[in-house]
Design brief:
Shape: globular
Order of helices and strands: EHEEEHHHHHHEEEHEHHEEEEEEH
Largest sheet: 9 strands, antiparallel
Distance between the termini: 41 Å
C-alpha cells in the first residue's frame, strides 16, 4: 500500500512503532495561545514570526499538531509548536517530545553500512549475494550500493502487506514481523526493473541492509547503530523500537485517517513497527535529529570520501534526489540541504541541514500528511524554516 504521492521517505508508505506505557502529552485547548519558545541562546538570525506562521499553516491544513527545532550558525535555537498533541485532552504540546521518525532511520542504517565499508568489512560494489547467499532473488546482480540508493529494482513489500486500506493495517497493528518475512513478501512480486536500470523507493532495500549489518558484525543491527551513532553523539533520547508498541517518554499522540483524508482521525500511537525493521523504527526528538545531521554532514561520522559518495545524488522515478540513504533539497531560498523525510504510522518527520551546516531544521507532525494541502504546507514549512532570516 502506498500513500498518494507521498514525498520520498514513506515507509508505507506508512509507518513506525514503540514500547512501554508512557504518559501522552496533549496540546493546548482549541482556543489556547500557540506556545513558541527559544532557548537561552539568542536566535540572532532566525525570523521567529515567519517560522511560527509556517507551523500554523500545517495545523490550518488539518494536522493535529507539529513541533519543531531550528538552529542557526550563531548558536541560536528556536523550539516552536502549533496545534494539539492529544485530541481528547487540553494539555500542552511538548516541543522536546519523542516521535516515530520513520524513514529518517534509513540515514542511520546507511551511515552504519558506510562505516563498515571504511572498515573493509563490506564492499559497496559487491553483490548482496556475497553477504546474504540465497536470500535475494537475482542477488548476484544487485550491489550494496544499489540497495543504498534504491536502484535495486526490488519490490517494496509495504505496497502489498495491507492491500486494502489503513484500516487493514490498524487491525494488525500489534503483529510482529521478521526481516525474513518482509524480504519474502518482496520476493513474491516481480521487480520493478533490472538492477541499476532506474531508481524506485523500496523499504526492502533497507531491511536487507540491516540484515547485512547483522551478518558482518555478528550483532543486532539496532545495537550496532546505537553503539556507532547514538552513544558517540549523545543522542540520549533516541532509540530503535524493534517490536515494542509504545513510545518511551513524553510524546504526542499520533493519528491516522483510516478511510481516506476526509474521515475522522483514529489514535494510532501504539503499534508494532517490526514490519519497518531497519527501514524505519527510529524514535527520536527534534534536538537529536538536528544533532545527527549536523554531525553527519560535518564529517564526524564518515570520511570525506565516503560522505561524498553518500551525497552523490540521482533522481528516483518520483523525481526526488537520492544518494546513499540521503535526500537532497535545492531551493534559491537556502541553497542545498541534506537530510531525510520520514512518513511513519501516525507521524511525519522532516529533518534537514544546509550543506554549509549553518541551519538545522527538524519538525514532526503527529499525523501522516495524507492530502495535498497538508503535504504542501509541510514542504512550504521546510523551505521557510531553512531560510527564515537568511538574505535572499
Amino acid at each position: 500500500m502506498r500513500l498518494p504521492a507521498l514525498a520520498t521517505g514513506a515507509l508505507v508508505s506508512v509507518a513506525l512503532a514503540v514500547p512501554l506505557a508512557a504518559p501522552a502529552f496533549a496540546a493546548p485547548a482549541a482556543n489556547a495561545p500557540i506556545v513558541a519558545s527559544t532557548t537561552s541562546h539568542e536566535p540572532c538570525s532566525l525570523n521567529i514570526s515567519a517560522m511560527q506562521k509556517a507551523l500554523d499553516a500545517i495545523t490550518a491544513a488539518g494536522a493535529p499538531g507539529v513541533i519543531a527545532e531550528v538552529r542557526d550558525a550563531h548558536g541560536g535555537v528556536w523550539n516552536g509548536s502549533s496545534g494539539k498533541a492529544n485530541l481528547d485532552r487540553p494539555q500542552k504540546l511538548r516541543t522536546g517530545g519523542l516521535f516515530r521518525a520513520g524513514s529518517v532511520t534509513k540515514t542511520f542504517t546507511a551511515t552504519t553500512v558506510l562505516q563498515l565499508v571504511a572498515e573493509k568489512k563490506v564492499s559497496l560494489d559487491a553483490p548482496i549475494e556475497r553477504y546474504l547467499p540465497g536470500l535475494v532473488p537475482n542477488g548476484k546482480n544487485i550491489t550494496v550500493r544499489q540497495l543504498l540508493s534504491h536502484r535495486s529494482g526490488l519490490a517494496n513489500y509495504t505496497d502489498t502487506l495491507w492491500p486494502g486500506s489503513f484500516r487493514e493495517m490498524y487491525a494488525s497493528r500489534f503483529k510482529s514481523w521478521t526481516p525474513q518475512q518482509l524480504v519474502a513478501e518482496s520476493a513474491a512480486h516481480d521487480p520493478y526493473f533490472a538492477p541499476g536500470a532506474n531508481g524506485h523507493y523500496s523499504n526492502t532495500n533497507f531491511v536487507l541492509l540491516g540484515m547485512l549489518i547483522e551478518k558482518v558484525t555478528g550483532h543486532n543491527a539496532d545495537r550496532e547503530m546505537t553503539e556507532r551513532i547514538l552513544k558517540p553523539l549523545g543522542l540520549h533520547h533516541s532509540y530503535f523500537s524493534g517490536d515494542t508498541t509504545r513510545i518511551h517518554g513524553p510524546h504526542a499522540r499520533g493519528y491516522m485517517h483510516l478511510d481516506g483524508p476526509d474521515s475522522a482521525y483514529t489514535d494510532f500511537t501504539d503499534t508494532n513497527l517490526s514490519w519497518s525493521s531497519t527501514a524505519g523504527t527510529l524514535v527520536s526528538t527534534t534536538h537529536d535529529l538536528n544533532s545527527f545531521f549536523k554531525a553527519l554532514i560535518g564529517g564526524k561520522l564518515l570520511s570525506a570520501h565516503l560522505l561524498d559518495q553518500m551525497k552523490a545524488m540521482k533522481s528516483l522515478d518520483d523525481g526526488s534526489l537520492y544518494g546513499l540513504g540521503l535526500n537532497r533539497k535545492d531551493d534559491p531560498a537556502y541553497g542545498t540541504a541534506y537530510g531525510h523525510i520520514g512518513a511513519a504510522t501516525a507521524f511525519n518527520t522532516y529533518s534537514f541541514t544546509t550543506a554549509d551546516k549553518s541551519r538545522q531544521v527538524t519538525f514532526s507532525i503527529n499525523t501522516l500528511a495524507d492530502n495535498v494541502k497538508m503535504r504542501d504546507a509541510a514542504n512550504d514549512a521546510l523551505t521557510a524554516l531553512l531560510s527564515a532570516g537568511k538574505k535572499a
